[in-house]
Amino acid sequence: MTAYALETKSVIKTYQSDSGTIYAVDDVSLQVAAGEFVALVGPSGSGKTTMLSMLAALLQPSSGQILLDGQDLAGTDDLQRVTMRREKIGFTFQANNLVPYLSAVENVELMLRLNNKLDKAGKLRARELLARLGLGERLHNLPGQMSGGQQQRVAIARALIHNPSLVLADEPTASLDTERAYQVVETFAGLIHEQQRAGIMVTHDLRMCEYVDRVLQMQDGKLVRIYSTHDEIMELVRGGRH
Predict the structure, then answer these.
(1) Banded pLDDT at 87 (limits 50, 70, 90)
(2) What residues does 16 pair with on adjacent strands?
(3) 109: closest CA among 123, 129, 124, 88?
(4) Residue spans per domain, the chain
(5) CA dist 32 to 3, 71, 91, 158, 201, Å?
(6) Half-sphere exposure for 36 (CA within 13 Å, toward CB)
(7) 6-240 belongs to which CATH class?
(8) In what order do the strands lie in the sheet with 222-227?
(9) What 8-state DSSP symbol labels residue 64?
């Protein structure tokens, strides 16, 4: 039996409205292995952002299980969720949320500091990771002194530096031009594979799916299709280029 880094079982998220119960996420089961990079796609309102928020332990499901390294996020209290977010989950979002008065390397080191792991080896790893991302000459630049693509690469380094089990990216290329978007996603995919993290990217840009291992398509809160072969994914990518 495959041991998945992330697994959800019949996850449901409902909200109450004047017209009744709204199913933002409706009975979604999925699995992501370590070293696998998956795209979560779907139209606005499909439930993908709600799903990502639950995977990030920012939102509790109404029912179902979310297992990260075998531990059920849905069964944890607030303090346990905060600890798991800090230690086991990395984030890269459209608004990269870099601290404006910290340099590139200080922004990356911040995750180690929060986990009480900012030692000599950690500082060296932060510099090596930024260099791997082509930012070796930008270590001491503030976010305002870097381009959007460079800032996004700092955010990627920050998401990976503390060796999380799960890395989540929410529309990481939405503010980038096409060339920089491809560079960012290709680099991100390479690091997910190299470091054996489970990675999930929510994107509206189907062209970016070229770099993922599988595509999960949501609609009306449900997981409606999985593209799992290279040919299927490339057909989807070609459709996104029209």
Answers:
(1) confident
(2) 21
(3) 123
(4) 6-240
(5) 9, 14, 16, 21, 12
(6) 19
(7) alpha beta
(8) 89-93, 166-170, 198-202, 37-41, 214-219, 222-227
(9) E
In the three-class reduction of DSSP (H, G, I as helix; E, B as strand; rest coil), residue 15 is classed as strand
Q: Could you give the 3-state DSSP secondary structure of residue 84? A: helix
**pLDDT of 2 higher than 70:** no
What value does the mean pLDDT of the chain take? Answer: 89
- Band of residue 1 on the pLDDT scale cut at 50, 70, 90: very low
Q: Are strands 37-41 and 214-219 parallel, antiparallel or unpaired?
A: parallel
Closest by Cα among 62, 4, 72 to 28: 62
> How distant, in Å, are the alpha carbons of 55, 60, 120, 126, 141 from that of 39?
14, 22, 35, 26, 31
Angle between helices 148-160 and 120-132 (to 10 degrees): 140
Percent of the chain exceeding pLDDT 90 equals 54
pLDDT at 204 over 80: yes
Q: Which amino acid is at 75?
A: G
Beta carbons of 152 and 108 less than 8 angstroms apart: no
Whole-structure pTM value = 0.89
Q: Within 13 A of 35's CA, how many CA atoms are on the CB side?
A: 5
